[in-house]
Structures are given as C-alpha cells and as structure tokens.
Amino acid sequence: MSAVFVVLLLASCTVSLTSAEDVCSTVEILEFNGDSANQTVTIQVDFGPRLPGSNASMELRKWFMETRPAFDWRLDSHSREGYNLTNLEGKLVTENVQEGGPIVVLAAHYDSRDRAERDQNPNMTDMPIPGANDGGSGVAVLWELARIIPSMNLEHEVWILLTDAEDQGPTPSMLGAKAWAENRTSEEVARIDAFLLVDMIGDADLKIYRTFPPSPTNEDGNRLWNAVEQLAQPLGLIDNLSDCDGNPGMDVVNFSRSDGVIDDHVPMLNVGIPAIDFIDIRYGENATEWGGYWHTHEDTPDKVSAESLAHIGRLLELGLRQGSWLKSDNSSSDANASESDVLEVDSVHTSNDDASSTQNIFIAGTTFAAILLIFTTLVFLHQGVRLKR
Q1: Contacting residues for 373 by C-beta, under 8 A, at least 6 apart
Q2: How many domains does the chain have?
Q3: Is the pLDDT of residue 222 over 90?
C-alpha cells in the first residue's frame, strides 16, 4: 500500500476515520461475488413481472427466504391504494449481538414496474417491464450480502428489507416503504443507525452521486455519505485516487455533483431514520437523467453488470466489517473495529509521543477544510428533487 494512499485517505475523511492500514487489511478479505449476484438477476426476471399480489412476487420471496435461511424472515402484508402488497423483512440477530443495540438496514424494492411509459414502441407501453436493473439489481446485491453477513460475527443487528409496490401506477408512490416506515416503533427508529437503499445500481457505466434528500445540512446524511466516500477510495472507486494496491481509482463514486431523488429512503427520513439512496439515474451508455433503458422493455439482464454489482456490494460489505454505518457512539461495539483503529475528529487515538498533538491538529484542520469544501460544493450544485418516476 502506497504512502500516498494513506495521506489521501486521511485527508478525505471527515466524521469518523478508520486507519488506512486497517481498511486495506479488511479489503483483502472481502467476499462479495459480483458474478453470483448477477446470475440472480436472470432468476428474478424469469419469475415474470413481479407485480404486487402476483405469483411471480410470491416465488421471488420464497426463493430469497429458502436460499438465505440464516435470517429470520417475516412477511409484512398491507393493503394500500388498491394494491395488496407484501414486504419481506429478514433479521439477523447472532449470539454476539448486544440486546437493544444498533441496527443497520439494507433495503431494495423487489417489484418490477407495471408499465413501460418510456418505451419507443407505443404498443408496449402498457405492458410490465422486465425490471432487471430497476428492481433486480438491488435484490441481487442484498441476496449476495445475505450469504456473507452471518459469518461476519457482527455485534449489531442487520435487517434486510425487500419492499413491494415501489414502482406501480402512473406515479410510483413507494407504498411498501411507507407502510414499513409507518409501522416502526419509536424504539426501533431510535435503534436504526443506517437505512441503506440500493436501487438501479447495475448499469455498466455506474455513477454514484450523492443524492438528496437528505439535505447537505442533515447530520446523519453527512455521516453516511462521508462513510461512503471514505470506503470508496480504498476500493478504487474514486477517480485518480489510489486504491489499496496503489492503482488509480475509477470514476464510480463522485460527489462533484448531486441528484435529487424521491425513493424508498424518503419515508424512512420522514419518521426519523437515518437513510441514504445508492442509485444511478442514468441507465445506459450516454444516458441522460431518467433516460436510457429506464422504464422500457430494454431493462433486461444483459444490461446489468456483475462488476457494478460488485462495486456496491463490496462497499456495503466493507462498511459493515469496519463499523462504518454505525453512529460514532456505537462503532466501537462492532467486532471488527477497536479503539486503536478509530480516529475521531476531536480525538486521535495514537501513541502518547511528542507528535500526537501535532497530528491531532493536522487531522482536525484537514477535516474541517474537507467539511467546508463538501458543504459548499453540494449547496452550489443543489438541483430540484425529482420523484423516481
């Protein structure tokens, strides 16, 4: 690992920093398999249109539960706006988990759109789309993570949520996510440190920009997006910044701009759950915002990239192993993070030598400058929020 990488990593981190050496040692043991995840996109599409109340939806839920038995699965059914929808919720509570401790929720919608209003063939616009990327890609990432997470020996609960009826009707209304959020108890809301939504992340030319809401002034939003940026660099997902092997990074995670998106994370924000949305709204080569293959019959498995699924899956896995998704007062409880590894903005845990004070001042100053830069950039680039429709 190059010395340049260590300096750049420390300079780019803001709220909660983990040592570069520790991150890179964790990168070496990541298990997420993009090819395995990608194979499940075809499985999902082969079930048929995953419309609320359909046999295809039932078969998908059955397949997910049967192939990932380590989680405690529960069907969460509701009747909303004429739809009989069923969310699938899985909880992993191992022996290491502290009772009443923090929760990280990984989420994706599993329904496919009931129409193709953007299709070039007018005879096809009223027919359900395949939903390989819009629906299938997020489920694929969570399915592969559900294989890995039980062996991580985490000291906090991990929930997997597959929401139904996100993409139905003339204007998608996120009905499943709304029902799930509204039925959380105040205790559950207080315990959830992160709700991480993955949606439309299979494009071969994957670009993850910071999405809003949450706003640039939202403390938890900043905490989670800062963690994303911290994790992306050692994975080689930031343009021209070296990964753990010293190779220049790719332009995948890019916070030089932001996208306004109303998606399944918004109902969570509305009840006080910290939430962010990983989404690429430019689907296809040279696609514009909400263009390309999106909401057409061209949203097929051949358009979904195993490499892109791996980029997001590995980032989420690395964050779980490092405790990056937890609030700072909970991060020390993770089995893979210790006090000697974690650097706080106002307190750097190093040896008590003469350089300690100087190092604290350097990191604090760099951190403050980074916060100002990120905030200024986001405010300048702030655009209108748009529904995922």
Answers
A1: none
A2: 1
A3: yes
Strands 157-163 and 83-92 come out as: antiparallel
Q: How far is CA 95 from CA 92, 156, 249, in A?
A: 10, 10, 38
Distance separating alpha carbons of residues 274 and 186, to the nearest angstrom:
14
Our separate counts of H helices and E strands in the chain read 11, 13
DSSP string, 312-354: HHHHHHHHHHHTTTS-TTTGGGSTT--TTTEEESS-B---SST
What 3-state class would DSSP assign to 268? Answer: helix
Distance CA 306, CA 36 (A): 8
CATH number of domain containing 230: 3.40.630.10
Residue appearing with tokens 């911290």: 230
Instruction: Find how far residue 88's CA is from the centre of its chain.
Output: 17
What is the distance between the alpha carbons of residues 156 and 170, in angstroms, rounded to a whole number? 39
Q: Are strands 291-292 and 282-283 parallel, antiparallel or unpaired?
A: parallel
Helical H runs in the chain? 3-12, 20-27, 34-46, 55-67, 136-148, 175-182, 186-191, 219-232, 266-270, 306-322, 356-381
Return mean pLDDT, the chain: 86
| pLDDT-derived band at 98, boundaries 50, 70, 90 | confident
Asked if residue 371 has pLDDT above 80, the reply is no
Helix (H) or strand (E) holding 91: strand 83-92
The domain in which residue 293 lies consists of: 3-387
pLDDT of residue 247: 94
Distance of CA 225 to the CA centre of its chain: 10
Q: What is the DSSP letter of 48?
A: -
Higher pLDDT, 212 or 338: 212
